[in-house]
Amino acid sequence: MAIFSSFNIDLKGLSGSLDSLDPKGSVKYRRKKNIPGAAFFEQYGFGWLVEEDGSDKEEEDKPLLEELEIDPRDILYKVRCVLCPFPFLGYQRQLVRDSPDFWGPLFVVIVFALVSLYGQATVVSWIMTLWVCGSLLVFLLARVLGGEVNYSQCLGVIGYSVLPLIMTATTLPLLNPFPFISLFVKLMGVVWATYSAGSLLCVQELQNKRPLLLYPIFLLYVYFFSLYSGV
């Protein structure tokens, strides 16, 4: 008995409760579901059947734009970078290439498709197909030439660079009485879009091969503009 009494530990001074723990800080924070019969399950030890993970509630509370990973400020900044492609303006234009997104270019291409409708809904599918397939061809050509770019970057840059075509297309109805001026404005719009996209996609490895990449991009935007009046 003396041996066991030597290991006797006074536990009276120890006190505490698990209720003092922060439930949100625990690994598995659970909350009760407000369903009928919950008290019955808890009475017989089956309360875990009416509990759910609290993290699901936090995910449900996220805004829709955050769930879809849409940043309007980032998209607006990239729009300004494309519309103002000159380096002396101070925009960090490399963000359009280095931080590609999907929703911004998609919105730009859809706006161009809507501007190009003229009563033909089929033009929308043509323009979307041209954007996806054209970006793929530019990506393959850039990789063959030795450029370190990926498809998502080409998709974003080509999509955002349709913006100059939208700006040009909205002014063309005012220039219909002047065919030569209208043709000149179309050409300037295509050159504007080509310069904006080419200056972003012609990375350091492609500086000596810029014409080989700019020419197909120029043809791509010429084809974009050919769809302006419908297919």
From TrEMBL:
Residues 93-228 form the Yip1 domain. It is found in: Golgi apparatus membrane; Golgi apparatus, cis-Golgi network membrane. It comes from the Eukaryota. InterPro entries: Yip1/4-like, Yip1_dom. Keywords: Golgi apparatus, Membrane, Transmembrane, Transmembrane helix. The keyword Flavoprotein does not apply. The chain crosses the membrane at residues 102-119, 125-145, 157-175, 181-203, 212-230. Its main location: Golgi. Pfam families: Yip1. It is a multi-pass membrane protein. Belongs to the YIP1 family. PANTHER family: GOLGI MEMBRANE PROTEIN YIP1, PROTEIN YIPF4. Involved in the maintenance of the Golgi structure. This is Protein YIPF.
